[in-house]
Structure formats: C-alpha cells, structure tokens
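To: structure desk
From: M.T.
Subject: fold request, one chain
Message: Could you run this one when you get a chance? Sequence is below, nothing fancy, just the single chain.
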Amino acid sequence: MRELIIDLDAIAKNLGTMRAKTNGALALAVVKADAYGHGMIPVAKKLEAAGADYLGVADINEALELREAGIDLPILAWLHAADENFIAAIDAGIELGLANVEQLERVAKAAAHLGRVARVHLKVDTGLGRNGASEFEWPAVLKTAHGLVAEGFIQVVAIFSHLSCTSEADDLRQIARFEAACVLAKNVGLDFELRHLTASDGLLRYPQAHYEMVRIGVALYGLSPFVENTAAEFGLVPAMTATAKITQTKRVADGEGISYGYLHRTNGESTLGLVPVGYAEGLPRNATGKASVSVNQKTYAINSRVAMDQFVIDFGNDKVAAGDLVTIFGDPAAGVPSADELAAACDTINYEIVTRMGGRFKRSYLGEIA
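Reply: Done. Structure tokens follow.
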C-alpha cells in the first residue's frame, strides 16, 4: 500500500559520477541517518561492492550496526556522547573523529584497556561553529594528540573539517584556515595520512580542496546539494521513489468540503481518491495546498489537509480507481515530481525530505547485494 523503491544501482552510479569529478581523492561515502532514509545496511553493502574507500556515520551505534552486518570498509564516526567510553568502537576497528582534549584522553584510556591503537581523525572548526576544536583549542588538541601518539595509544589518520557553504568568500576563508590548521599539525610533529574538508557541495565547487579524501553524502542519493541546480546537471540519478496505492474512491457533490478545516471544496461533482500517506510516513503537513503528486501520468495537487495517515486528491471527472499508483516523488526524468519540488513546496531541502521518509512505508530495493 505504501512503498519506498530504492535504486541501489543508481547509488553506485552516483558514487562513480562524483568520484570522477575529484583529483583522484579517496571517497568517503556518508551513510548516516539510515543512509539519508534509504536504508543504511543495503546501501553500505552496495557502496562496498562499488568501491567506496570509507563509510561515514554520525555516531558509534551506526558504525557498530555496519560492522554487525559484515561491512569491512574503514568506518569513521564523529559525533560522541560526553561520557562515551569508546571501547566497543575501538574493538570493532571504528575510526573516531575527535574534537577536544577530553575525547582524546578517553579514547587513549579505552585503547590502553584493550591493548590496541585507536585510529583517530582530528576535527578543527574552521568556521562552521559546530563540532570541532576552535582556533584557541587547536594547539592543545595537537599537543595532547602528539603525546598520545608517542605513548602508543593513538594513530592520527587525518585532519578534517566541514564547510558552511554560506558564500564563496566564507568557504575560501575556511579552506585557508583548514590549510593553516594542517600546517600547524605538521609543525608540532604529527604525522597524518589524510585531509578531508569537502562534502558533496564543496566537492563540486572547490576542486582545490579535494586533498586526499572527499566525503560524498547527499549526491550519492541522486540529489543536488544546491537549490539552484538540479541533480541531472551533475549527472546524478535520484535513488528514492515514494509511492502509494489509492485505497478508496468515491463520487461527491459540488461544494463538498474535504478533510480537516475544509481547506478545499469540490468545484462540481468530483471523484475523490484516498492516499494512505501522512505525516507519520514523513510527508510534511505543510505540503498541504503546495505540493503535487503523479497519478496515471498526470499531476494533481495535494489540496486537502495532509493528516497523520492520509490525504485526499480531488480528481474531478478524471478516471481513477482504488489500487491506482500515486507517485509522491521520484526521478523527474520519469515525468513525476521530484524530492526537490516537494522540498521547495514545504520550504525545506531535499535532504530533509528523503531522510524523514519512513513510518509505515515498506522499502524495496533494486540491485540489492545478497
């Protein structure tokens, strides 16, 4: 009745498309937040088979799920609880993004307990103002890391940061700060293999900042990181199609109010179709009156209130029946609305649209790895 069709072959293709735009840098494929709503385990298996060099997740629980599923690729996790003990992560060979002295000391303690060397990526805040050591904290982080390397508890694999993508001037300022932070790390005697700064947006805009590794997130899923550009402009193929089947149709009289608040009334005798998708499935409530869906190769407005479980389409005198397929969004090349169009209608971004899709949707996969 409700289905998210995930094209894993499209994800593999998008990885290749984005990799081809780099200077030969390693590709870290970001699968956090259940692979942006696409299903972390099937997506990770496909990316591993497609030749991704690293996987990236937000937290250790996500990383451990990947290991439990048999994923052998290097995995980086960078968002940690204040009281994280890191033992399970180090034991599973998870690489850790660290941003302050306390995290370094906790990781070293866990590594000593296990008798292992923890592989860490040091994160410097170059201007995004989120995770990462500030300019004032960075020297202390480097000094602590250098000491722990000498004691044999950690290995510094990489220095990394994240662009704000506020403006070109801001991004270039961040690139300069990042390079200065890497120089400072070298000057204190830290040896590291990799630098990574750009995600999908920075990868496309700043080839001079690809360094040794790039992080590819939203572009993997066939979505543009820029509202002013379509995915097709970058050769990307949307991987998620959200569909449902009409559960009921009925004829109603002229002037009938439809759903909560009667935000829409029929203009003449009409056929109504009930679609079993609501905000419990992730369809934003404020899609009401703004977004459209596709049925039988024709576009119809969502002009009744999106409720928890359902919304109603006014088909007028068009022929429609229970069981007909409704495409909420998918690949616009197939003549259906895109996630970008739904995002614009809801005053949000395509990242949020695909990531929030869930609830009672059933996922099915094309190109799945056994």
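Reply (cont.): Residues 16 and 34 are 21 Å apart (CA to CA). Let me know if you need anything else for the meeting.
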